[in-house]
Amino acid sequence: MKKTTIGIIGAGRIGRLHAENIISFPNVRIKTISDLFIEHVTDWAKTIGIEEVVTKYEDIINDEEIDAIFVCSPTDTHAEIIIAAAIKGKHIFCEKPISFSINETKEVLEAVKEAGVKFQVGFNRRFDRNFLRIHESVKNGVIGEPHIIKITSRDPEPPPVEYIKGSGGLFFDMAIHDFDMARYLVNSEVVEVFSLGANLVDPAIGEVGDIDTAITTLTFANGAIGVIDNSRKAVYGYDQRVEVFGGKGSLTCENDRPTTVEFSTIDGTHKDNLKHFFLERYKEAYIAETFAFIDSIQNDKPLQCEGNDGLQAELIAKAAKQSYIEGRPISIK
Amino acid sequence: MKKTTIGIIGAGRIGRLHAENIISFPNVRIKTISDLFIEHVTDWAKTIGIEEVVTKYEDIINDEEIDAIFVCSPTDTHAEIIIAAAIKGKHIFCEKPISFSINETKEVLEAVKEAGVKFQVGFNRRFDRNFLRIHESVKNGVIGEPHIIKITSRDPEPPPVEYIKGSGGLFFDMAIHDFDMARYLVNSEVVEVFSLGANLVDPAIGEVGDIDTAITTLTFANGAIGVIDNSRKAVYGYDQRVEVFGGKGSLTCENDRPTTVEFSTIDGTHKDNLKHFFLERYKEAYIAETFAFIDSIQNDKPLQCEGNDGLQAELIAKAAKQSYIEGRPISIK
Amino acid sequence: MKKTTIGIIGAGRIGRLHAENIISFPNVRIKTISDLFIEHVTDWAKTIGIEEVVTKYEDIINDEEIDAIFVCSPTDTHAEIIIAAAIKGKHIFCEKPISFSINETKEVLEAVKEAGVKFQVGFNRRFDRNFLRIHESVKNGVIGEPHIIKITSRDPEPPPVEYIKGSGGLFFDMAIHDFDMARYLVNSEVVEVFSLGANLVDPAIGEVGDIDTAITTLTFANGAIGVIDNSRKAVYGYDQRVEVFGGKGSLTCENDRPTTVEFSTIDGTHKDNLKHFFLERYKEAYIAETFAFIDSIQNDKPLQCEGNDGLQAELIAKAAKQSYIEGRPISIK
Amino acid sequence: MKKTTIGIIGAGRIGRLHAENIISFPNVRIKTISDLFIEHVTDWAKTIGIEEVVTKYEDIINDEEIDAIFVCSPTDTHAEIIIAAAIKGKHIFCEKPISFSINETKEVLEAVKEAGVKFQVGFNRRFDRNFLRIHESVKNGVIGEPHIIKITSRDPEPPPVEYIKGSGGLFFDMAIHDFDMARYLVNSEVVEVFSLGANLVDPAIGEVGDIDTAITTLTFANGAIGVIDNSRKAVYGYDQRVEVFGGKGSLTCENDRPTTVEFSTIDGTHKDNLKHFFLERYKEAYIAETFAFIDSIQNDKPLQCEGNDGLQAELIAKAAKQSYIEGRPISIK
Q1: Which of D148, D227, D248 comes nearest C213 by C-beta?
Q2: Contact C213, C199 (CB under 8 A)
Q3: pLDDT, tens digit (0-9, with 9 covering 90-100), for A219-267
Q4: Do residue A152 and residue A269 come from a single domain?
Q5: Residue C307 included in any domain
Q6: What ipTM score was computed for the predicted complex, to two decimals?
Q7: B141 shares a domain with B204
Q8: Do C326 and C224 belong to one domain?
Q9: In whole angstroms, what is the distance from residue D72 CA to residue D91 CA?
Q10: Would the CB atoms of A269 and C265 count as touching at under 8 Å?
Q11: Is D269's CB within 8 Å of B235's CB?
Q12: B238: nearest CA partner in chain A
């Protein structure tokens, strides 16, 4: 089998994570990684066997040897990069969200469609073994028609306020994963959204115009209803649970913990806290999504998470934000 | 200590349950029970030692020997009975809801206040050991300020459609318990409500103008937000869970099961279903609420669930119903 | 139906417990309770409606009105009382163990057999809903042939050393319940025993010749093997678990806890300790065994725990003690 | 840092597993793998980058470039290979057991001691995150002095009878891991053993002189007592649990499952079976033990599992087998 040659655009935390996962696959080679600031990247890149480090992403896009790219740069650069890469015929893996503008996202989808390249959006949680098991079970009718979906999604601590400023806000930065998860598990489109938001964790988050606590209800095209609750700070760890309830039963999954050990003493029974960090919690899911992307390219299989999934999640995020601001339910056409 | 003499109005399922619980207490005597149809009641009443069975509730209210009454008749008779009993100086335990009309409920509260009698509303779940433990822990600051409350409340199967017709609908008949629970656990008043409703379980329920599936969001005076999900039919049993999440942690409780037994076979690991019926699930809570009422009378202790709690839950139910009908959030003044 | 009239011999903790459970049944009357020291008993007896308090157990045995007796006096008085009562035709419920001497126990069994009276031994745990569920499932073949049984049985704290002196030691006083449970769950007789004992909890227990920690292996007639571990002190509460493992799977049960509440904070996830005391843990089982005894008398049903069950458990206890002392496995013929 | 060059002796299942784990570490190179039958190995070896495949292990031992070897050949070849490799100054990782003969094992230990090389025994379970957490907690005094240790260790299905014939039997082939685990968690030597064995799973196992079900009690030098139960066939999966109980509490760990998903339907609540296979269950532990061995070589750190640990486990296995045959407890001097 021909090796797939890959370029990575953006060598921040998530770009490096993808690189380290990719190199563990056979028949794949990372030729180039690009970043505006390459000083801190060079040594690391050499250690894991990346051949070139460049500052301009165009060097990757114009490289005819490169088959596929991973777009891990800031969100506001995604659209430009993707459109340019699609024209050059590269397959594209893009971190979520595709963009902060629905129109821009639609242009991106148009471009990749025309180019006929593979385009996967980085909703890594779809590849988590717990959520995947629930997705498949719902699809197989284990619980009949879905009636209610509930998603709990809470970070262990808020990101720096500087980051929040440019993040697009809680709905675009954090809840967008949950909006995708809701569609993925219920297997139907969201047609209406209502959001409650609050600033209860840290006043500094409110001062930059964002919220840190939210409850969002969802109405689906198939008649199901759902709710997502988000918090930027769960002191006990990264809290990620879902439940899908239907006419024939219910599917739930509990959080992953570092061990199954229980301590029983005179003070009661104790378990260690949840896995704390998303990179730790979704370690295997990140590997699985990368594998699925490469497998799709090498064996021409359908993608499990494509451009339209990115668009739909953004439409929900936009409606949720508007609902919170205007204090009323918002339809998604 | 002087014996407390009790009269019970209404000998349906819940009236008989209270009677059977009351007779197990020392220093209490049930003198009379009233019901429109006494034929089926007489034998049972004799067995458990109730002295008289009558058809007219006035015989109870006018009996000077009787100190306290339990109002277990249909909701539309509550107000009249309570007001008459209060005038006669009886202490009153009333099943929820107090009435189907906010104004009527307010008149009832006025009457019991003027009469200076004890008036307890039958929110039995407050006395469940799991919810009580969470209530106390929130109050003691174990999780800091509450940010989010989540209540799951699903019946094992819908009541007969005939019952639903006269029930006041899902919000007044079923969710009203959850509205009280939300106030009880968060320890703050609800100021706004938004409800999604759906008819997914049985079309016959929709045909009589009711819903069988609902998600209701709550905004509290103290800034917390919350959500309740209801279904009339959870095939796996009576599903009753709560979570209170705050700045310093989270409190959850799982469903009670008949046993702790796990079966592991080649097909996986299996547990028996949840306790199926509310009388079974809340058996101890029903005893505890009755004990608390009698204890309050005999030792002049404050009530743990009083008239205003009934009123507030009804205000939320009314707003929830309106929100569902009008498709917008409704304020509670 | 004719009322059953009952006499209770011994008004210590367990005698009073049985009395309080018995009076909650219809068609049953406690006429008399006897105790050497009746001063502290009289008031309590009046409150719950016992008619007479006497010092001599003979007054109960010779009372022709009395149908059945509960033997709750010290173990060394059991045999004499039971034999005398059987001659008078009383049905007998006896607390475990029947006696400290195998020969005496055999005489007792002979006497009740000749008299043709009902004779139930107080192995209350057989009536616990968890163990009963496992017993029935094994019997129904859910796990195929049993291969291994494991019982964990640990008290929350040791009894006073004074009590231990007269208790017959860990095997006769504490593990005897587990020996019965093993037979009950595997449904086969124990043919060989090996015991390890240790004095790790409190040297004072060793000084009076007893142990506080033990592991006992069991070989059953049907080929299964088993193990029981005992401790006099589990600081986290009363630890009572069983597992039966067979050719087609495994059955386990977890401890009962006072609530299902979990506390998640920055320190991890926490549950309250186990139910602490055997009277609390087996509250329902005590009621159920009493009900079963009375039901057996009133409706002439077979007993669920009879004289031979007491004898077999004592045979195992005797062998376990000998095995510990001699450091070798001991056969039970 | 200088790269460590490694040779692997034996390309069976476990040899290939170690190879695949080793190549994922930086600064390590597998130069050679040896196996009597190299046909099936060559392609695989090339794919993962092993340079040479040879039939004679001496080619590895005599290669001056090679720093360390992994002994993954059949147990009866271990001693000869280790002694030869030690003389040549190679660091050695050896799969368990070191040999089937205590005297041979002692010679091996003497040889590696004289040669001054690192010698790690493959008790991979010490590196499992659950057992490691318990080991550390016991060491840190979380539960005070250990009183009782319980280990459940059951395979999902028996190996082929052909394998069993040459395996050394249940105690040497299977329970030896549990003997090591007991020493590791209690942190004290075993001084006496008593074993019950049975042939309940498959008569064919009995026909070749082995057992498939066992309970083994342990007495430790520090006064603690313990028990291990083994079965060759747990139909619900690979069952691996431990409990350490002490004066201040208890530590337990549950089995790992593939997901945390629970299915609730009209039939009850269901979880998927346990991880089925030891390679799946201990995947991370195998990686961790390999990392620890290489780390010990490269940074001259102490081993976490050394030659004496192999010897002690074999002494217990020998005593357990003798105890089972002779039906009496056996001392380990």
Answers
A1: D148
A2: yes
A3: 999 999 999 999 999 999 999 999 999 999 999 999 999 999 999 999 9
A4: yes
A5: no
A6: 0.94
A7: yes
A8: yes
A9: 14
A10: no
A11: no
A12: A249
